[in-house]
Amino acid sequence: MAVTVYISCDSGALALGAERIAQVVSREAQQRGIDIRLIRNGSRGLFWLEPLVEVLTELGRVAYGSVQVHDVSGLFDSGFLSGSPHPLFLGLTEELPFFKKQQRLTFARIGLTDPVSLEDYLAHDGYRGLNNALTISGADIVRQVTDSGLRGRGGAAFPTGIKWNTVLNAEADQKYIICNADEGDSGTFSDRMVMEGDPFVLIEGMTIAGIAVGATQGYIYLRVEYPHAHKALNTAIAKAYAAGYLGQNIQGSGKTFELEVRLGAGAYVCGEETSLMESLEGKRGLVRFKPPLPAISGLFGKPTIVNNVISLASVPIILDKGGEFYRDFGMGRSRGTLPIQLAGNIKCPGLVELAFGLTLRELLYDFGGGSASGRPIKAVQVGGPLGAYLPESQFDTPLDYEAFAAIWAVVGHGGIVVFDDTVDMAEMARYSMEFCAIESCGKCTPCRIGSTRGMEVLDDIINGRELNKNIPLLRDLCDTLLNGSLCALGGMTPYPVLSALNHFPLDFGLTDQAEAA
Amino acid sequence: MAQFQVTFNYPAPIRECLSRSGSHSEINMTETASMQTTLQDITTRLKDKPGALLPILHEIQNAFGYIPKDSITFIASELNLSRAEVHGVISFYHYFRESAPGQHTIHLCRAESCQAMGSKHLEAHVKNRLGIDFHETTPDGKFSLEPVYCLGLCSCSPAMQIDSEVFGRVSPETFDRSLVEIGA
Predict the structure, then answer these.
(1) How sure is the predictor about B70, in pLDDT bands with cuts at 50, 70 and 90?
(2) Average pLDDT of B154-159?
(3) Burial class (CB in 10 A: 0-12, 13-18, 19+), A512
(4) Chain B residues within an 8 Å CB radius of A16
(5) Which residue range is the domain that position A443 belongs to?
(6) Is residue A108 part of a domain?
(7) Start-end ranges of CATH 3.40.30.10 in chain B?
């Protein structure tokens, strides 16, 4: 019988050479006359071990990593197809501490299955949530989501059930479900991993949302920088249509849900929901005034649910196991699990899905293993380019929306970027202003002009010019951005800028924190 | 040429190839016709979609490598928009370009995670090696260099993309090797 070998097709693995490893393993097996069944799975999320090669043995799936082209023939020689020892042998994949300590709900299938195999999806509890949803009323579906305590995983953490309920109760001839897949935040890649590693879970989540609120059309607004996700989604959507999980009369229920992927075009601001809708309508991605809320008047003026990939991908398990099951994970008002992404200067970068409540320190050291460079960790940025920089003294903060808000930081989309002590925080603050200037949609003045002025002031500060004048000027400017911007781009750029200034005054040429104030 | 201009304002590459040819050979007329056909096909196929402009621009850029400036009039009339509206959309989005890219496009990530892993040093090396800055193309037309703000490969920073291929943990040495592999 053919031995089953798994090599990931996740673009993180591909970037590290997984495609070549897959080719070489196939060729080597062929040359040796060995019959193997090669499955291109999603990534387990242990990226420092990618390209990871897994073999299905009697004991379970064992892993070898990270495998380079020159390792392949040695692996065959040592009998890796029967799970034999080798210097790259890691043991059972699911016994690896990084993996074993996780609580994978949304990511339950990722890395296990062939992402675009509907059979695999069904064999691993796929579409159980939808099957349940089809037997209950829309209001009951929304109640399950509300009971689960799920909050928007895109960053704003708005209760998903409340948003859905607003759309459910809105009267309209057409409603829409939009998946915000414009994952532009640096340090985040969980949306990408879901779309590449388990696209059906997102399709199922959107279908449930559509059936719940009576929306018959869905759009996945995907960033153009994710070509692999684009391909996986389109393949999965075509299979879902063919099997009656999308389109008219879904599984004989009489319900309709159509789904299409639309590509963005490299504008960060289009991750803001109103800008995203403008873009979907074929316009410049200019942010809209709110109100009206998208749930009342969204895409083409119709009631619209806009949810992040992870929010929607968490819905199937909630409908499968019930809102209470999901709510039992987490702390305080942060319920369920969060897929956390460890990135930047960290020894073990990857995906860690856990219930809310773990501290940053546990994540950085117990999971991440400290910095990649071996130098002390100086700062971490949590929540993408608009998230605050946190110093070592705040590493005991638990991952919880409220706990982070209390220290003027954000959990955001769960991305953690690590910097060692070689980083210059004044340069990072300047970069934040530069990024805001590049990506500003231009509609509101604080963001459009303020970001450029911010860069100039920071240039002066970096060059040591008139600090006693320029530091207060920077604070004043940040105040204007914070309170006067139309959306989070201008409104939150002060988070990284001011947190850098407050926690690392020395990098700004100041002698202590008192001077920074 | 005048007979064509009655119905259609040609994209720059078509005009270039017409003017280069001196006498308008059959081949050039065929090329011209095929480009016009492509534009027509794309707009006809997509224009009735809700919010059709971005899907149309994507397909045009896929077909030509960029969005020919002179195709704007055509797109505008097909979608019943003003030229200013179409131009406004093209210029708003970083991904859309109005000039032909080099043979290969290198997208180098500038975002925080890559910075934490030495992307500034890599950026300096890449610019020096290619002799160009961001948004430029090498004089031999081989490479265009574009910044990108996150490829979602933050678990293997610094990252870059050359055409459709992605690369992680890129060092100046591995960058040079990638160039050799694609035949630079």
Answers:
(1) confident
(2) 98
(3) exposed
(4) 156, 168-169
(5) 425-516
(6) no
(7) 104-181
**Domain B104-181, classified CATH 3.40.30.10, yes or no:** yes
Name residue A154's beta-bridge partners.
Answer: none
Task: Identify whether residues A290 and A360 lie together within a single domain.
Answer: no
ipTM rounded to 2 decimals = 0.95
Close Cβ partners of A227 (under 8 Å, ≥ 6 residues apart): B164
| Preferred mutation among A49, A50, A186 to probe B, highest tally of B CBs within 10 A | A186
Same-domain check for residues A125 and A251: yes
CATH code of the domain containing A278: 3.40.50.11540
Compute the distance between CA of residue B159 and CA of residue B177 in angstroms, rounded to an integer: 15
List B residues 75-114 in contact with A (Cβ-Cβ < 8 A).
Answer: 79, 85, 88-89, 92-96, 107, 111-114
Residue pair A257/A263 in contact (Cβ under 8 Å)? The answer is no
**Residues 29-58 (A) with a CB less than 8 A from some CB of B:** 45, 47-48, 50
- What is the number of structural domains in chain A? 4
Q: How far is CA A18 from the centre of its chain?
A: 22
Which domain CATH number covers A485?
A: 1.20.1440.230
Give yes or no: residues A371 and A429 share one domain.
no
Interface of A with B in 329-348 (CB under 8 A): 341-345
Distance CA A130, CA A200 (A): 11
**Interface contact A272, partner B, CB < 8 A:** no
Bridge partner residues of A304 (DSSP):
A176
* pTM of the entire predicted model: 0.94
Contacts of A258 in chain B (CB under 8 A): none
Judge if A302 and A348 occupy the same domain: no
Pick from B50, B85, B150: which is nearest to A186 by CB? B150
Question: What pLDDT score was predicted for residue B182?
Answer: 84
Nearest CA-CA distance, residue A247 and chain B, Å: 17
A30 and A43 share one domain = yes
